[in-house]
Design goal:
488 residues, mainly alpha, two-stranded antiparallel sheet, 19 helices, 55% helix, elongated
């Protein structure tokens, strides 16, 4: 009896929690609809008609998992008469592996993820997918990339820097553009001609990451062999060290004896070194593949490294080649806390609720994913004079994202549950510079990935299942080998 009572209490609590969550989502979605309705009224617009279930099911599958529904999935949804069937389908898709794969395509494009020709590529891919799979907070996701350190296979986030290896200034400009929606790259060579950013500010920002160092290390069995060969080389040099010149050579015979000993040791040393080179050559031939696997990048941060202005710097606030101290280009102060490196302070300053542009960009990105167009276009060219088509809505979305602790799924769940998203699509193309009032989502062409995955859906009854016989399997296998090869 007590067991039944306990089970009953658990079920009641669980149902109450679900109901409360559904109410919160519905309430948040209704607030967005109300702000849009206010804008429609101000511009004498009428909302699009509600979309039928067959339109909705195709749209939500494409937007969340990146493919059309299978026949079975569509039939199951269309046969349901439950009042909350749309909300339930949204939840199901957001919790699926299809969401991970679809949004990985998006973030891989934004972050310029590369797997070919990059030793950290598979680990970086795994990091991004795992962040989506675990629904990692967006601010933490960004901080881990910007402040990542360590070995590639224990911290795939360092792929954010190794992707731009040897190009630290380009990496910084990309960081500002991707996460702050601000184009500062022109200021690398001169003061920005169309914005307020100076060349000094560019290098002050670059100073935050000037201590980032990427080096190749060897691990596992191959690392042990490399260490052994190095130690043997040192032993040879110590064993066959040239003898000291006699303090008081008395005769020519003494001098000849000394040089004879030097020649003898030299022959022995050359023979030992040749044997070592031969061993290393055989080692390289036999372990060429595993040697490549065993080599892995490691990222560290050296506080002593500073950035300098270019030799052709022409402004009055500093001399060419002067050292530059790190400073944030906007918003709140960016001062390292006790025990914090410059790059850690930079990551904390960047992905911070107080950083207005950080919030603005992420809500814009995900709004565009749902509705087809951002509230500010282009979303990566914000200036102090940029005005959203619906400023009140944008401000509300920024506060909403912060209140959700940067939970991307929770934010998307609210957008997909709005009545505006669930209306018929607007077919008219919005010309650049023309305000879009979002009387419904915009009609969009399918992406290449959506087309491919939709073709797969036609022949595969489980299209979201990982293709373990092809790319995904090989990627996971390579990652496992890399981890085994790396030292503990």
């Amino acid at each position: 009896m007590k067991g039944l009572l306990a089970c009953s209490m658990i079920v009641t609590f669980w149902l109450g929690t679900l109901a409360r969550a559904d109410t919160e989502v519905s309430s948040a979605a209704a607030e967005i609809d109300a702000l849009l309705a206010r804008d429609w009224a101000a511009n004498n617009l009428m909302p699009n008609a509600p979309a039928d279930d067959d339109v909705f099911v195709r749209r939500i599958f494409l937007d969340v998992v990146g493919r059309i529904p299978t026949t079975r999935e569509a039939e199951e949804f269309l046969a349901s008469r439950e009042d909350g069937r749309r909300a339930a389908l949204i939840d199901k898709l957001l919790d699926s592996e299809g969401y991970v794969q679809n949004y990985f395509h998006y973030w891989a494009d934004v972050l310029r993820v590369q797997s070919k020709g990059q030793r950290t590529g598979p680990a970086y891919v795994h990091f991004v997918k795992d962040a989506l799979r675990s629904n990692k907070r967006y601010d933490m996701f960004v901080r881990e990339m910007v402040a990542g350190d360590g070995k590639a296979w224990s911290d795939g986030a360092i792929g954010y820097y190794t992707r731009d290896r040897g190009m630290p200034l380009d990496n910084m400009a990309s960081t500002v553009r991707v996460f702050l929606g601000t184009r500062i790259e022109c200021a690398q060579c001169h003061n920005h001609p169309f914005d307020k950013w100076t060349q000094m500010q560019f290098y002050q920002m670059a100073a935050f990451t000037s201590g980032v160092e990427i080096r190749d290390f060897r691990g596992g069995v191959t690392g042990g062999i490399s260490d052994l060969l190095r130690d043997q080389g040192m032993a040879i040099r110590a064993t066959f060290k040239q003898p000291e010149w006699p303090k008081n050579p008395t005769t020519e015979a003494d001098r000849l004896a000394y040089w004879a000993e030097v020649e003898k040791l030299g022959r022995a040393r050359r023979a030992a070194e040749e044997a070592l080179r031969l061993a290393e050559r055989f080692y390289n031939q036999a372990l060429s593949e595993s040697r490549g696997i065993g080599r892995y990048p490691k990222l560290t941060f050296d506080e002593r490294r500073k950035v300098t202005l270019p030799p052709d710097y022409k402004y009055d606030d500093a001399k060419p080649k002067s050292f530059v101290e790190a400073a944030g280009m906007m918003g709140h102060a960016c001062t390292p806390l006790p025990g914090e490196t410059r790059v850690q302070a930079y990551a904390r300053w960047l992905a911070n609720p107080e950083n207005d542009r950080f919030n603005k960009v992420v809500v814009n990105r995900l709004w565009k994913k749902a509705f087809g167009l951002a509230l500010i276009e282009p979303l990566d060219d914000l200036t102090d004079t940029t005005v959203a088509v619906n400023p009140e809505l944008l401000s509300h979305l920024e506060k909403l994202m912060v209140s959700l602790n940067y939970d991307m799924k929770a934010y998307l769940r609210i957008l997909f549950n709005t009545s505006t998203y669930q209306r018929q699509a607007s077919h008219e193309e919005v010309a650049p510079g023309t305000p879009c009032h979002f009387t419904g989502p915009l009609l969009r062409r399918m992406t290449a990935e959506q087309l491919w995955d939709s073709f797969v859906t036609l022949i595969n009854p489980n299209p979201d299942m990982l293709n373990m016989t092809a790319r995904e399997y090989l990627e996971q296998r390579r990652l496992a080998v890399e981890k085994i090869a790396a030292p503990a």
